Amino acid sequence: xxxxxxxxxxxxxxxxxxxxxxxxxxxxxxxxxxxxxxxxxxxxxxxxxxxxxxxxxxxxxxxxxxxxxxxxxxxxxxxxxxxxxxxxxxxxxxxxxxxxxxxxxxxxxxxxxxxxxxxxxxxxxxxxxxxxxxxxxxxxxxxxxxxxxxxxxxxxxxxxxxxxxxxxxxxxxxxxxxxxxxxxxxxxxxxxxxxxxxxxxxxxxxxxxxxxxxxxxxxxxxxxxxxxxxxxxxxxxxxxxxxxxxxxxxxxxxxxxxxxxxxxxxxxxxxxxxxxxxxxxxxxxxxxxxxxxxxxxxxxxxxxxxxxxxxxxxxxxxxxxxxxxxxxxxxxxxxxxxxxxxxxxxxxxxxxxxxxxxxxxxxx
Amino acid sequence: xxxxxxxxxxxxxxxxxxxxxxxxxxxxxxxxxxxxxxxxxxxxxxxxxxxxxxxxxxxxxxxxxxxxxxxxxxxxxxxxxxxxxxxxxxxxxxxxxxxxxxxxxxxxxxxxxxxxxxxxxxxxxxxxxxxxxxxxxxxxxxxxxxxxxxxxxxxxxxxxxxxxxxxxxxxxxxxxxxxxxxxxxxxxxxxxxxxxxxxxxxxxxxxxxxxxxxxxxxxxxxxxxxxxxxxxxxxxxxxxxxxxxxxxxxxxxxxxxxxxxxxxxxxxxxxxxxxxxxxxxxxxxxxxxxxxxxxxxxxxxxxxxxxxxxxxxxx
Amino acid sequence: xxxxxxxxxxxxxxxxxxxxxxxxxxxxxxxxxxxxxxxxxxxxxxxxxxxxxxxxxxxxxxxxxxxxxxxxxxxxxxxxxxxxxxxxxxxxxxxxxxxxxxxxxxxxxxxxxxxxxxxxxxxxxxxxxxxxxxxxxxxxxxxxxxxxxxxxxxxxxxxxxxxxxxxxxxxxxxxxxxxxxxxxxxxxxxxxxxxxxxxxxxxxxxxxxxxxxxxxxxxxxxxxxxxxxxxxxxxxxxxxxxxxxxxxxxxxxxxxxxxxxxxxxxxxxxxxxxxxxxxxxxxxxxxx
Lengths: 364, 315, 288
Fold this sequence. Notes:
The complex is a heterotrimer. Chain B is α/β, with parallel strands linked by helices. In chain B, 41% of the residues lie in helices and 19% in strands. Chain B is globular, with a radius of gyration of 23 Å. Chain B contains 14 helices and 13 strands. By secondary structure, chain C is of the alpha/beta class. In chain C, the strands form 3 sheets. Chain C has a 6-stranded mixed sheet with strand order 6-7-8-3-9-10, sandwiched between helices. Chain C has a 4-stranded antiparallel sheet with strand order 2-1-4-5, with helices on one face. In chain C, helix 4 (112-124) runs antiparallel to helix 5 (140-153) and helix 5 (140-153) packs parallel to helix 6. The chains are: A mainly alpha, B alpha/beta, C alpha/beta. Chains A and B meet through helix 1, helix 2, helix 3, helix 7 and helix 12 of A and helix 1, strand 5, strand 6, helix 4 and helix 5 of B.
């Protein structure tokens, strides 16, 4: 040990401590040139497993249906060899499967960011009103006979409007977790009520279309929607790289965070802002597919055994969930097509009950 | 939690494992032959001169096809009121395959039917057009309801029955006009159209399908149902407390689906309903929703004329 | 060195500090004491830039703290707020690692220096053996040492702690205070803490700041300033001040017994005119 008053500065290391001996438990350092990232070893393992499962699910989804296309033929078609199945594989199945993967990943990302800021495993875009904002706008567009191409942009505006309202209500209190959730619930209720009003005065078949939108579906959607979502994620990539790191500190309370030189309010606004942006975009494109944003981050968190949802694993799990939900929706009751949102709700509902029961057990 | 993911993984692996050993189902090659060009809501499309395997994606197009003697190989259903128009006789529908709900058609089921023509509507299925067009030549009408006569002629043209469609439409219009003249001063008779939907009640205006048919006969409408101050003259909501607004010399009542039918039964048993002039005079008639509301074709229009002839005696 | 100039601070409508000037000595263990709501926590929080003052400045080594980037402040000034929220499921090493935040960026998340600093901090705070344990599974005393380790990992010259011994039992209180004392003596850190217990303050502090109603009543070495008059002034409590039998530091003993049975008064323990009791006989352990 160093002697009295011999305070070591950070460059000199006490003799009994080997250089860099303290590794954070369960983590490795990933060095790429000047960049060094902390990586949870378990997160890497989970990410690899989820990627393999996602690829298998995609092949499975490309295979099943009318006609059935054997995986070998799917791969042949994908390689561009020119098979009689090109129409089915490329035009009917691939676009919406890719969309499902991209949208699921985006929901996972949005959910992770929103839950971390809200410090609440039950928070998701539909709890804080983003979905309802987009839903109201989409319902208005769908029931007023607006062109189909206008539905998504209108819904995006609606979702962002809800986000602005959310921040206006929550930011005065530094977007503190509880305030953020409360503001969101208020926004959600207001927009939902307005949607009901619009729905009531609509033609039944328009109303049905709006209802399907509100549940969320990938039918009749594909490359365009996937490109919008993927583009958004790509543009936000630097922000997301920062977010992956910044999420680490959302578990600290504001005073502690300030003590270690963070700006917790700015950080929360940045993270929540990114989250709602992604949520608004993906909801605008595929509708209110709920529960993916809720479930994926928490399941991923448990798999990685981390104290907060891991961004990449949540995205991969979201993609896997939505690909499977879409496949089930297409095939379970064919020719009746169930919107993907119905299936995700079927998984998410019981999960929500599980979370609530667990929460009760822990708090008692 | 781990168990859930393990189960997910097992399901995916099992699915892939099972499918990996299978053989692909065969698919048919595309048909070639004589074609015609049709200009429609989504552009210009080459369709076979005589389409043999037609898939229709809206109830009005079932009416159109059956009116022109073409039985579709597949048709979409209309959500809550799932059944197809039965007024052509159930045997006509027996061979038609269901291809999903009209707002969410099952593209793979449509593809499996190997159609050579798909009829749909831009209003309903715009987002599916690209995929549908990849499956078979697809012709879309623009709007629903108001333009039903134009839609009928366009679909007739696509089906290769342009002249027959024109003839049928002309015959219907002549019949409507002739019927009107048998009534003497037809315009003096105010015909009210009321529809029950789950949770709300509507009156139908001059731009609705049944409103257009009534208009073709020259019959009059109650002031309230002319919807003079509204831009959308298809329908308007009526609150149950103000049901007296639906009165007319004669009232035709329909209900969309079972839930609405129950609401109709409840309302028509009440004192408010029984206080209506037409009800007191015994001139309120329940009629088929599929004819007056969802049929939207020459077949349904003729059925409405049948109803009118039945309930409105000549002067 | 930390100083305040004409500091005005408070919460919402309430002004707690009104024009406070204070200089805290470097390389000393300063303890701030005072009755509840006297503004001692407000002062500490304002100096730690957790609370923005309405007027006036906090000076860190002569420059206004609000003009310094918060990361730089965090490299010079460590802060342990009152009862920080324990994040669920975070391990000790992980939490201590958060103390390295001011040296990290998202593209430079860990360096050998970070590892060394975390090691040193855990060894110093005696939590190295707990490195892989989740913080929420630890006892109160262990947790507090982990939090202190986190602020130590920041490698700052000065440490500010807001009531670091609250909610701890006596043994753990002593444990934490001993650690702070060692930091000051062995590592030459400047330590500033708000404490509730006057006797502990007197025992450990090099420099005592007594506050009442948002103002500093007295400041200086405890042996010089801690008198019965001061305690009466600051706390409104009649007491006697005697030297501690162990350290010789002033020991404050309430003068009236309340419901408790008074010790039979013997001539040798009769309070002297100056309020001190001659160092003789045994002392009641109650209240220590």
